[in-house]
């Protein structure tokens, strides 16, 4: 609108509004008003500080910008804009929306999963005074502003609610914003940028000593200070082969000590320069790309490239140790040569340590690693480098699909069958493999799925022509598939040929391997020492106070642990039910296997690889390195040992009890048993020595074990597909699991029954349940589940989801169901 003010025309700027994504489980974006001072700073993908609710501040992401005010509520002002440039790209936002729609969750939940913690900045709502705020500026504050600072001088910090009480008014954020703008206060560490560049001190020789004669005179002048002379000599030697010499490196090589180095710096002989360095990358590594593909690999490589011409997704079905990683490397080389980017997904953090070293040998520091074991600063550094295009190969676990990729050309999903790619809690309950496929669709990139035991759904898609299929059924080099033998626990126990948990067959193979300086891997898919304690008198078993599970004894801590909620308690010596002291351990985990084996085979040097032994950031890498360098010769572990590890000296694999895998109550039990047993077996004989696998079991005639012995994936696939089709399971049906949680058992049951009736009215026979799951109570919530089966052919999944959301909305808004929480899990497997 053009108006006149005196003789000066001006244009009244239209008020702008932004729709933002908050890191909360709310169903919609929320609209805020943009102050005139900030309107030039806003852009989609930037973070803004907003107030949501009565007293909470959040860093939200701008989703959309418009000039339309919300109809049902008055828009608050955004407080500040955090970023100079957007941290979220349009492609990322597109992916977020797909994850929201497909997995039936909220955009804020996707944001929580996608962003590093540093970017989320959820407010603790604490106010602190700035230490160096000038006295003269303090005198210019208003009475209320001065009152807040006066209170902070006394208390040190105040909550927002404390400020509300202090001033006797509810609207304190504009006032706090003014204090923030003046630099008088800080609003919680959570509302400040916590990412800082890592600096490292490097030593430079003063340019006064550039030529050889000046260097000779310098060394002569230090004859009476031998430590300082050593430091200069060490510097000159290092400078011949490298351009950057760090302070720590010079101290280590010269052995001169801090005082000598300090003296040289004070004299001006050495200069100190602090430079920004990466938290992730170590020293520069020489690239090495000299390996040659075998005939079978070369053929598979050419087939993959041919398949990519007509199909964007290709499955590489290659037996264990067939050299799939080398094919990935060749494909990555092509992509990098074209200046494009690659995402290499692995199912677990555990696998990255070995694979990253192999990729770094080939691609140097073009490789970035991203997973949850990294600290906040490292994750942000990778994020920024991917956004800026500095990192061309991203190696990561499932959360890496949410990075801000530029020019993405290829996604490799290694071990694509792994259940670890699925996030079960909290929402979004996404599958990284399927999300990666949609990510590739956004970027028009190619996807290569690799596995020795592909998921039934993936192999079905490949056999039906939806995906391309390349098979590599020959091991690389001279290695051959291991010999697999079944040891009957029933027969060996009957004939007294079992020592502790080991049959004589397995013990003999372990001893034989160790005598030849070879290595052994033992697999037991349960961590801890014993799954439960049992009173022999009355049958009492200690249970978790929050969950309906028995507590597991961990000898390393000397306590009983709940593996669902983390509850711990001291080991009981007397039964609290009957007072008996006759308590015994039942079952066994990795800790007990480790202990028993050390008694039976004293010469064994044993390491353990499970969740408990790998909690530290570098603990997995340390265990793997020690095993690879033969500091110990037996590795006892859970399913972590099955996932793509490569050890040249391992010749014997022992599976302590296969029955626990086969008899698990799940429609994928047989598929997963075959996969896990095959993958564990594949760790043996990966060079030129024949490997041997001993599988201990009671059900020795089970078809899965026979298929594993024959290495017959195709037979397993055919039998599983026939059963799945008959009983209406994937790949022929889609599954959506609905879980109802309630703190009251009876009310929870009643709510589940009501929801079951409503769903059956909408979907008929497609609904199963409600049922009480195997673990009926977790974290003090009683659980009931319903299963919705939807035909893949002829049924619109979006329409099904819309009908399901409508039914759930009616359920949740009915007051009789108050206290019930509903969780949706699409593709719950």
UniProtKB/TrEMBL annotation:
Keyword field contains tRNA processing: no
Enzyme class: isomerase
All copies of domain Helicase ATP-binding, residue ranges: 305-472
This protein's UniProt keywords: ATP-binding, DNA replication, DNA-binding, Helicase, Hydrolase, Isomerase, Metal-binding, Nucleotide-binding, Primosome, Zinc
Amino acids binding Zn(2+) 1: 535, 538, 575, 578
Pfam family, one: PriA_3primeBD
Function statement: Initiates the restart of stalled replication forks, which reloads the replicative helicase on sites other than the origin of replication. Recognizes and binds to abandoned replication forks and remodels them to uncover a helicase loading site. Promotes assembly of the primosome at these replication forks.
This protein's name: Replication restart protein PriA
Organism the protein comes from: Olivibacter ginsenosidimutans
Name of the encoding gene: priA
């Amino acid at each position: 609108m053009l108006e006149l003010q005196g003789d000066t025309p001006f244009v009244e700027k239209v008020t702008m509004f932004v729709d933002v994504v908050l890191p909360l489980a709310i169903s919609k974006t929320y609209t805020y008003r943009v102050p005139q001072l900030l309107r030039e700073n806003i852009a989609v993908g930037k973070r803004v500080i907003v107030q949501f609710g009565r007293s909470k501040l959040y860093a939200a992401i701008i989703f959309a910008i418009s000039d339309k005010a919300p109809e049902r509520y008055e828009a608050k002002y955004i407080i500040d804009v955090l970023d100079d440039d957007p941290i979220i790209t349009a492609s990322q936002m597109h992916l977020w929306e797909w994850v929201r729609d497909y997995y039936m969750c909220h955009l804020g939940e996707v944001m929580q999963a996608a962003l590093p913690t540093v970017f989320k900045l959820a407010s603790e709502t604490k106010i602190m005074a700035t230490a160096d705020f000038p006295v003269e500026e303090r005198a210019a504050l208003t009475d209320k502003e001065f009152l807040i600072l006066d209170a902070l001088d006394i208390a040190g910090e105040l909550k927002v609610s404390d400020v509300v009480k202090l001033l006797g008014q509810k609207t304190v954020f504009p006032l706090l914003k003014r204090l923030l703008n003046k630099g008088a206060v800080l609003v919680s560490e959570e509302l400040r940028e916590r990412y800082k560049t890592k600096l490292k001190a490097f030593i430079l020789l003063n340019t006064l000593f550039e030529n050889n004669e000046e260097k000779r005179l310098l060394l002569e002048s230090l004859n009476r200070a031998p430590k300082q002379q050593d430091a200069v000599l060490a510097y000159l030697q290092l400078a011949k082969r490298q351009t950057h010499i760090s302070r720590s490196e010079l101290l280590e090589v010269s052995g001169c000590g801090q005082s000598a180095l300090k003296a040289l710096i004070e004299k001006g002989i050495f200069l100190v320069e602090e430079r920004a360095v990466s938290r992730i990358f170590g020293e520069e590594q020489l690239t090495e790309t000299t390996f040659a593909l075998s005939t079978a690999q070369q053929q598979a490589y050419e087939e993959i490239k041919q398949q990519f011409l007509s199909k964007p997704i290709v499955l590489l079905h290659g037996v264990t140790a067939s050299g799939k990683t080398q094919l990935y490397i060749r494909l990555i080389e092509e992509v990098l040569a074209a200046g494009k980017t690659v995402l290499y997904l692995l199912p677990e953090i555990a696998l990255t340590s070995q694979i990253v070293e192999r990729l770094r040998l080939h691609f140097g520091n073009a490789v970035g690693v991203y997973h949850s074991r990294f600290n906040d600063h490292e994750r942000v550094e990778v994020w920024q480098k991917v956004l800026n295009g500095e990192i061309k190969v991203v190696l990561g676990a499932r959360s890496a699909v949410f990075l801000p990729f530029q020019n993405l050309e290829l996604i490799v999903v290694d071990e694509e069958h792994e259940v670890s790619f699925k996030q079960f809690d909290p929402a979004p309950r996404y599958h990284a493999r399927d999300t990666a496929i949609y990510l590739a669709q956004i970027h028009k990139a190619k996807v290569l799925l690799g596995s020795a035991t592909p998921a039934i759904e993936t192999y079905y898609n490949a056999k039906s022509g939806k995906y391309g299929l390349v098979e590599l059924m020959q091991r690389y080099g001279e290695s051959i598939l291991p010999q697999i033998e079944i040891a009957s626990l029933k027969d060996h126990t009957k004939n007294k040929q079992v020592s502790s948990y080991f049959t004589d067959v397995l013990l003999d193979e372990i001893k034989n391997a160790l005598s030849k300086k070879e290595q052994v891997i033992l697999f037991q898919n349960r961590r801890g020492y014993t799954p439960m304690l049992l009173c022999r008198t009355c049958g009492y078993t200690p249970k978790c106070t929050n969950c309906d599970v028995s507590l597991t004894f961990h000898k390393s801590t000397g306590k009983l642990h709940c593996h669902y909620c983390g509850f711990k308690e001291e080991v009981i010596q007397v039964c609290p039910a009957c007072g008996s002291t006759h308590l015994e351990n039942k079952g066994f985990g990795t800790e007990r296997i480790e202990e028993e084996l050390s008694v039976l085979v004293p010469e064994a040097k044993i390491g353990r690889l499970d969740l408990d032994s790998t909690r530290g950031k570098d603990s997995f890498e340390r265990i793997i390195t020690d095993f690879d360098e033969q500091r110990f010769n037996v590795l006892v572990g859970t399913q972590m040992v099955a996932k793509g590890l490569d050890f040249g000296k391992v010749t014997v694999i022992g599976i302590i009890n296969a029955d626990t895998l086969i008899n698990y109550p799940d429609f994928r039990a047989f598929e997963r048993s075959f996969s896990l047993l095959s993958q564990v077996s594949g760790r043996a004989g990966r060079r030129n020595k024949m490997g041997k696998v001993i599988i201990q079991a009671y059900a020795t005639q089970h078809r899965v074990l026979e298929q594993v012995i024959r290495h017959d994936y195709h037979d397993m696939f055919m039998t599983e597909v026939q059963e799945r089709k008959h009983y209406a399971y994937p790949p022929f049906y889609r599954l959506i699991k609905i879980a109802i949680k309630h703190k009251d058992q009876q009310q929870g049951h009643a709510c589940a029954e009501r929801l079951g009736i409503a769903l059956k009215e909408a979907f008929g026979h497609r609904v199963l349940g409600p049922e009480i799951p195997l673990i009926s109570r977790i974290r003090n919530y009683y659980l009931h589940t319903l299963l919705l089966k939807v035909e893949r052919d002829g049924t619109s999944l979006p329409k099904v989801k819309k009908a399901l959301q409508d039914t759930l909305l009616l359920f949740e808004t009915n007051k009789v169901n108050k206290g019930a929480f509903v969780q949706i899990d699409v593709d719950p497997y």
